[in-house]
Specification:
Layout: E1 8-14, H1 18-30, E2 33-38, E3 50-54, H2 69-80, E4 92-99, H3 109-129, E5 134-141, H4 146-152, H5 173-184, E6 195-197
Parallel strand pairs: 1-2, 1-3, 3-4, 4-5, 5-6
């Protein structure tokens, strides 16, 4: 089978969130992307049109113990910048996947801090790379076991219950992947520095979930 050089290439750096990662890979391949998956920051060795970073902020085990998502995203951008498609080639799309906890949650201050730092980094990188034709956006989801956590009761020493989707059905990995694909699409080339909550409305509750 001969290689199709017309395929756009996406680099997917996954340091957790296995279900979301697998869904992203399936969605991008279905959409016609050539996907390079990696677990560490690396030079892809070819022109890259899309970059997806999943730091593990949606995992039920808590915040990433050995990863600083904001720092890793900056380092990732520095590593791939020479490979990003030029503005005249349509530019490149960068998407980071974070957690709704960036809005604050009493029992998870560390993951909230990491998530908020990732959001700030996305906005800063969008400012830094916009004129080069590179968009940088974030997809924000829920922890995978949000509903189960709500059933346990309120956060310790508070009246606050875990936020869950207002839409009834839980947010699935495929929903996260579809939002990532939206930002990677050529038709989203005028959107940058934006934070898209794919959470079924849970972000509307912020820390006021009762």
């Amino acid at each position: 089978m001969t290689e199709n050089h017309d395929l756009r290439t996406a680099l997917v750096l996954s340091q957790g969130d296995d279900a979301a990662t697998d869904a992203v890979l399936r969605t991008l391949e279905h959409d016609g992307w050539r996907v390079i998956r990696t677990a560490q920051i690396t030079d892809p060795g070819c022109t890259v049109h899309g970059v997806v970073y999943l730091p593990g902020l949606l995992s039920s085990g808590g915040y990433p113990q050995k990863v600083e998502p904001a720092v890793s995203l900056v380092e990732l951008m520095e590593a791939v910048q020479p490979r990003l498609a030029h503005r005249l080639e349509g530019g490149a799309r960068v998407v980071a996947v974070g957690s709704r906890d960036w809005l604050g949650w009493p029992s998870r201050p560390l993951v909230a801090a990491q998530s908020a730092a990732l959001v700030a980094t996305v906005r800063s990188l969008a400012l830094a790379h916009g004129q080069a034709g590179v968009t940088v956006n974030a997809v924000i989801g829920l922890l995978v076991d949000a509903a189960e956590r709500r059933d346990i009761g309120p956060a310790r020493d508070t009246h606050l219950y875990e936020p869950v989707p207002l839409t009834g059905a839980p947010v699935a990995a495929e929903d996260i992947a579809a939002s990532v694909a939206f930002f990677l699409d050529d038709r989203s080339g005028y959107i940058t520095g934006q934070i898209l909550h794919c959470c079924g409305g849970a972000s509307l509750l912020s820390s006021l979930s009762a």
